[in-house]
# Entry
Amino acid sequence: MNNRQIKAKNANGHCGFHCIKIKNFGVTIGDTRILEDINLHIHCGELTAIIGKNGAGKTTLIRAILNEIKHEGTIEFKDIRNNTYPNLKIGYVPQYLNIAKNTPTSVYDLFASFISRVPVFLCKSKKAETKIREQLRKFEVEDLIDKPVCDLSGGQLQRVLLSVATLPTPNLLILDEPVSGIDRNGMELFYKNIDYLKKNDDLAIILVSHDLKFVEKYADRVVLLNQTIQKAGKPKEVFQSEAFLQTFGEDEQIGSND
# Structure
């Protein structure tokens, strides 16, 4: 692939430098088949949204990608020349972070525990603090560095977790219902941060979401899941498909007047 082809890929919405291939994923728990024949190509510079009803297997798929549960299939991380890289770096933002009220852990403590080899209770590193402040600034939460994590609002916490998950920059960022319980303004700000990452960093993004309006607005590709992939493509293509209608019904259909 020459430079002209790479630039063409850039113009079409993803960088073209690498692709993550999820091949033949399947999960069986006990006698129940949860996922079957999952094949996905996730490109850097693109946001791929996973949608589906409760029980469709979305969380199971995320846990399988994170290698938290036993599964069939493989993940390949390839570059533009089809070379395979052995180490796929994954960043993860969970739906919830359970922190007891009145826990004194600050945003700095939380962040430093991930990036520093020195226990945070021993000393506060100026070098680590500078790095943390720079990263938090990207997501407009630098002023929260000394605030207890338990006192953060839902939107503040998710942006802090996004800051942690993207330092260093991963190859794949996974967002599992990251804006549940966050108000509309917080959701808009969070997704603007995601859009910034997508456009400025060489990473691929998988988003699990029930908010179809935001999926339509921000996703490059949508995957409709129900044990296996029912439909995949651009948002408009998926939202107007028969598979989508059968899953969500006419009340949820969006984008049909575009």
About this structure: The longest strand covers residues 18-29. Strands lie at 18-29, 32-43, 47-51, 72-79, 84-85, 90-93, 172-176, 204-208, 221-226, 228-233. The radius of gyration is 19 Å.
